[in-house]
Amino acid sequence: MAIPMAMATPTDSLSRVWNMSSLKSSLPSSAVTCRLPSPSSRRPVLVSSPSPRLPSFSGLSPVNPLISTGLPGWQSFEDGFKIIDGGGRVYAMRHGRRVPKLNRPPDQRKALLRGLTTQLLKHGRIKTTRARASAMRKFVDKMITLAKDGSLHKRRQALGFIYEKQIVHALFAEVPDRYGERNGGYTRIIRTLPRRGDNAPMAYIELV
Amino acid sequence: MAASVDPLVVGRVIGDVLDMYIPTANMSVYFGPKHITNGCEIKPSAAVNPPKVNISGNSDELYTLVMTDPDAPSPSEPNMREWVHWIVVDIPGGTNPSKGKEILPYMEPRPPVGIHRYIFVLFRQNSPMGPMVQLPPSRANFSTRMFAGHLDLGLPVATVYFNAQKEPASRRR
What we know:
A: three-stranded antiparallel β-sheet; 34% helix; B: three-stranded antiparallel β-sheet
């Protein structure tokens, strides 16, 4: 809807005041026109019809089988929820999902979590995305629990998970003093400002 | 799920360095154009010079400012907790630390490993300090609580903290 800009320029090159009538004529005809209430009267103002309504967004609601025209395969109510048709059932809720997938295939996911726990045990506090921080907690706690036990078998299990062996040896040396009395919950997550590049929600995760 | 929403409690500033207190004064800290809010990220290269600190209050009250790092040398092994960076006493209210006596000169943040918290703590003095304050023997293993106890400063009146980590040495291409 191209607005003819030529009409809206000031008619008088010297005056800086816009000509109201030329502006009004250049605007679309269905725009809102309000009559300002006169100071003396106190009656409510009548507003003329508003701009044309946007079509309502119906992407996430199930298609109504009564309204749809000839969609095949309506066996049950759940068929209406198939947003992604890959054969798997997709629900709107998170019931029973225990593993955070982190948008990665399983081998890459395991490598990411191993790297993140190695870095957290090395630096003590790291800044990462919230999903990764909350997925990491389980593995960091597991490593600290292995260190609390302290036997050779547990040490070898920790060496198989953490990428740098000095960190494992340092961990096994200091965990009994540091976390001897604490039962679980060895990490703390502090939410922080989103990342500038992609507005990802970030968090600091630190060892308690 | 934090039990408290106070950013000082969530960031464990109250607990590691300070005790629970009621803030009675306002302090605003600026590193150049950047205003410090609790937990914001500051580059060490921006913190080379001492910050501009504006303290509220009457000019007949004297304040003490301490800047410490409780995560020295690394947050996972804070052996040298705390590392004190700056101590200024006898600051008149409503001014900035340049009007006070700088007991310990400002040292810029240099976190070797991990993300460190740097905390500015403001105390209200009961009496002018003058020559009573002695220099701490070393910057490491400082205790803000004991420092306040020695000088009878009581609980702090204002606190703010920021995070800093080591910047990568070479510029990425």
